[in-house]
């Protein structure tokens, strides 16, 4: 045999064979395989948890944006200085602008909705039937009743949660009470008027389903003492992110003083808080993967200490330091790679079935695990982002590979003479 050890092909079959042998449990050093198993579970659960939490946070943001912007629009145009009597002319000009998918005037006011069961605060919005039918968030989610004849029928459309709280069905009458009623010599008296429930809708967002009432436009004008006025014009755009360009074009198209508010201004605090929470959750859950990577380091160091005699024999048989280092690198990396992809599969499966899992756990525990009153939505959403999933997988793999470097280097630096001296 040559005096100089020959460097074998990197990651040769016998290196994989030795590495896999070290991963298998043995009676002499079974605790090492136990540590490897816990490292595997830590990485798997860490990756899966990261994927699930990020998907749920993405789902929350997407669902809330769809619900909020689907009902409230991207831009609201209001006027000041003069009464808004020319809303139809302004609406016609906005409808002709590029990027506008829907624009309509509305009347809005706060009131109390009551029935024989009780009373609750409500937001009453007056809209024309044609506009309400074009607003898919409402027209495509009618559970009971119909919008046919809405303008002339004198009825109102009520959210499902408000209808349930008031014990109402289609055809029942709902009383709407406004503090701003008729002006008398003794002051302003509240206005109380009863309307039949023409339709019941479900948007899927508890805050809207439990508070919104839609009333015919002309009736809302009369109810809120607005006569020939409108509260504003709601505008929906092709691209919600193009509101800045639209605002500039709007100032040119509308030849009168207007006040414009967009969806970012109205929901800035809410979406900013959601983004901060999402980033913090990512950092916190990354610690799970980091702890699992540290377990790989401790497990490999113990393995190197236990296999010192084996390493010495390999070195005397011609194995180079590179070979020894690759053997222990493969041992540690195998735990990280298998754990990462097992976590990817587990996380993906949970994301695909997250609502079914929530319902099962709710039935099993007899509790409401995702209360619509607290979380706004009636179902638990999950939306996986490919780039985020890739970043989670890459991060876990990098941490796993880095965790193997120091123990592998220690194994390669082991002197065979010292290891065999007392054998």
Automatic annotation (TrEMBL):
Residues 283-416 form the ABC3 transporter permease C-terminal domain. Its main location: membrane. The keyword Zinc-finger does not apply. The keyword Metal-binding does not apply. GO terms for cellular component: plasma membrane protein complex. It comes from the Bacteria. It is found in: Cell membrane. The chain crosses the membrane at residues 30-57, 280-304, 324-346, 389-406. Residues 39-252 form the MacB-like periplasmic core domain. It is a multi-pass membrane protein. Keywords: Cell membrane, Lipoprotein, Membrane, Transmembrane, Transmembrane helix, Transport. One of its GO terms (biological process) is lipoprotein transport. NCBIfam families: lolCE. Belongs to the ABC-4 integral membrane protein family. LolC/E subfamily. This is Lipoprotein-releasing ABC transporter permease subunit. It comes from Microbaculum marinisediminis.
């Amino acid at each position: 045999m040559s005096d100089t050890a020959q460097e074998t092909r990197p990651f040769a079959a016998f290196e994989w064979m030795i590495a896999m042998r070290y991963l298998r449990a043995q009676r002499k050093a079974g605790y090492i395989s136990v540590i490897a198993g816990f490292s595997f579970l830590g990485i798997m659960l860490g990756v899966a948890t990261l994927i699930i939490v990020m998907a749920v946070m993405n789902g929350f943001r997407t669902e809330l944006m769809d619900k909020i912007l689907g009902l409230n629009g991207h831009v609201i145009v209001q006027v000041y200085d003069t009464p808004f009597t020319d809303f139809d002319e302004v609406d016609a000009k906005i409808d002709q602008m590029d990027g506008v998918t829907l624009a309509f005037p509305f009347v809005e006011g706060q009131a109390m909705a009551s029935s024989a069961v009780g009373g609750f605060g409500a937001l009453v919005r007056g809209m024309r039937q044609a506009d309400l039918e074009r607003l898919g968030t409402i027209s495509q989610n009618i559970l009971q009743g119909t919008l046919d004849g809405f303008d002339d029928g004198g009825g109102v459309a009520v959210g499902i949660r408000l209808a349930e709280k008031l014990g109402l069905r289609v055809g029942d009458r709902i009383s709407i009470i406004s503090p701003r009623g008729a002006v008398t010599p003794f002051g302003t008296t509240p206005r109380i008027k009863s309307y039949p429930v023409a339709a019941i809708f479900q948007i899927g967002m508890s805050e809207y389903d439990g508070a919104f009432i839609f009333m015919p436009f002309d009736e809302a004008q009369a109810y809120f003492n607005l006569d020939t006025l409108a509260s504003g014009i709601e505008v929906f755009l092709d691209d919600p992110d193009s509101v800045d360009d639209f605002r500039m074009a709007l100032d040119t198209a509308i030849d009168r003083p207007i006040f414009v508010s967009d969806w970012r201004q109205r929901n800035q605090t809410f979406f900013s808080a959601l983004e901060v929470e999402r980033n913090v959750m990512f950092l916190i859950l990354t610690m799970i993967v980091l702890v699992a990577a540290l377990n790989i380091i401790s497990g490999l160091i113990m393995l190197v200490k236990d296999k010192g005699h084996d390493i010495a024999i390999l070195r005397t048989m011609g194995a180079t330091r590179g070979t020894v280092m690759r053997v222990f690198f493969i041992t540690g990396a195998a735990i990280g790679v298998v754990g990462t992809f097992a976590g990817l599969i587990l996380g993906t499966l949970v994301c695909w079935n997250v609502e079914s899992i929530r319902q099962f756990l709710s039935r099993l525990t007899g509790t409401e695990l995702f209360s619509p009153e607290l979380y706004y939505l009636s179902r638990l959403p999950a939306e996986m982002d490919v780039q985020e999933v890739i970043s989670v997988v890459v991060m876990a793999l990098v941490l796993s590979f880095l965790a193997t470097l120091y123990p592998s280097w220690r194994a390669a630096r082991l002197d065979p003479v010292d290891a065999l001296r007392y054998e």
